[in-house]
Amino acid sequence: MGGALLTSVVAFSRSHRELAYGLILLVSLLEALPVVGAFIPGDAIILAVSALVPTGALGLWPLMIAATLGAILGDGLSFWLGRHYRESIVGHWPVSHYPRMVTRGEDFLRRHGGKSVFIARFTPGVRSIVPMLAGTLRMRPRRFYVMNVLSALCWGPVHILAGVAIGATLLVLGAVAGRLAVLLAIVGVLLALIVWITRYGLRRLPAVVAAGEERLRAWAQGRDTWFGRALLSILDPARKELPGLALLGAILVGSLWLLLGVLQDVLTGDPLVRANEAVFHFLQSLRTEWFDHVMVAVSEFGDAQVVIAVGLVVVFWFALRRNWRGAAHAVGAVGLSIVLTLLLDALPHGPSVHPFESYWGAFAFPEGHSAANAALYGFLAMVAAWELTMPWKLLVASVAAILVSAVAFSRVYLGAHWLSGVLAGVAFGTAWAAFLAIAYLRRNPPPIRAGGLCALAGTALLVVGAARVAQSHGADMRRYAVQEHTQAMSWAVWWRGGWSELAARRLNLLGEERAPLTFQWAGSDVQLARDLAAHGWSAPVPWTPRSALAWLDPHVRLGSLPVLPHLENGRPQALVRVLPLAGAAGTSRLVLRLWKSNVRLSNPGATPAPLFVGMVSEQRVSRPNWFLTLTRSIPDYDRGLDALAAAIPASQLVRRRVAARSPGWDGRVLLGFDVGTPRDAAACVRQVLAIAGLCS
Prior knowledge:
Elements: H1 2-15, H2 17-30, H3 42-50, H4 60-85, H5 99-112, H6 116-120, H7 130-136, H8 141-173, H9 177-221, H10 226-234, H11 242-268, H12 271-286, H13 289-301, H14 304-320, H15 324-343, H16 368-385, H17 390-413, H18 419-441, H19 450-479, E1 487-490, H20 491-496, E2 505-507, E3 513-516, E4 519-522, H21 525-533, H22 545-549, E5 575-580, E6 588-603, E7 606-625, E8 628-634, H23 637-645, E9 651-655, E10 668-673, H24 681-692
Parallel strand pairs: 1-6, 4-10
Antiparallel strand pairs: 2-3, 4-7, 5-6, 6-7, 7-8, 9-10
């Protein structure tokens, strides 16, 4: 709904230039009104409309003046309401329905005094209530209006220029904007999930651990044995450090469980191994040069040189305080994790995406970058959090988790390591950090001044990491450049039976097998689209806000619905075409999906041709309720295959082994290729035979 609103606002602003300035003034004004402003997406609207400036649709200065003037008028009106109605306005609708907002605003005013008007302008949650409360609490008008005007003069240009920067960036990015948006969405979701898991674990897991301790204590009290007495001594409630150690023990057990689970999947060839390649292809298809620079820099911040430098700073801190046990454990956090990771390289691991990397750096299991970073920053966070209050515990743990996860994601994104190796590296490093933290903290260590330690380690990370980026960024960008890894096959080999070496079924991102791949096409997908168009196959409705909302129309025809995208082994669709079925009254259609494979077909004296794999499925309308329309695929792949064969001049139907067949599919695969525009069927057959090398 929010996306549709922004789209409509942007379209309106592009078409009505003069009214757009008035709209921005009104939005800026409404955003400052009591309560109402909390429900107006003013920031998003201003940023979206400002993005039109680089296209020439709107002027920069009129937009900036409108936003600033609206902000001044909005806060001024809110202040006047507070002074005019005084305390009585708090008891009237709509302010009376939001007592917590009023309480937060009053606390904000008492804490910041006269500066609160300026600060509140940039603080969500209190922005729409502080000006009114300033009037209610009798702030001097001169003081209020000075702060009001100064804050608006800062707030307006900042928002407008930020939107202009976004618009200029999207204008430059052009075709890669969609891929960049998907990547940013993935990263945003991952970061939010990591922070949520960290905060939830620190707040909820101690209660779970305490309940487990109580059950263990009750069990041990009923057993007069050596083990029972030993367990009771360990679970003595007088030991204040016990809950923290139990929490670290839970982290240790969970990390080991993840490490062993990944190792089992790698050794047994479970779907995680197939997911490695699918995730690799998916991320490679989304790569952009701008995001490559970011991910290479993140990876460089996790390099061994940076980890060792930060580790030495942590060791120095412990040594400076004559805490030799702490220094020894800090050395172990990095040193032994790297040594053990190198020793574990002997275990089976995937082939290298970058063949020029050395053996020790190519797809190690567990992956060294992730293991070393998780070990160092995990140990640092666990030790520092031991003597911090809960808000600071959450901050330190979240920063460490984000840093480790960012380095791990960069390794997968750049194609430097498989997903399984990175997961194993994070699990191994976290388990090692938890083990060292338990060994260090169980003996009531002296205070370490955690705030100073974290500040020093963070400074070392920024300084050494920046130096590493400055030194190696250019070489690393070339090292991790996108590379297309292709497999060569001759036309004759493919036509005679090499087609059977390609995957029989589509793989999703989890490595699970899905619908059968019943079509292989050699040549240009553009030519295929032309051949199909001559037989009634057309492009589906594109994805737009309007077509997406069509799913909420219970009476919509199938032809008005876009086709849901599917991935094959992580690769995006290269071509999608639909064919309405005769007599189905718009409720059934055939859907062809085509993906580019890594096989290139070679022929002496000719340019290698790309080979695509695809599938045809029947899709029908499903209306589960009065407000929603869905589509479902029918597992009848043979019907679609016959319709597709009739549309391709040069093709033949072959059959896979019986073991590959399934209900709705008899194992047939259609092979087709681009022959240009042959004059008749005989010419087409001769060209097929010539390419296959079966006749002179």
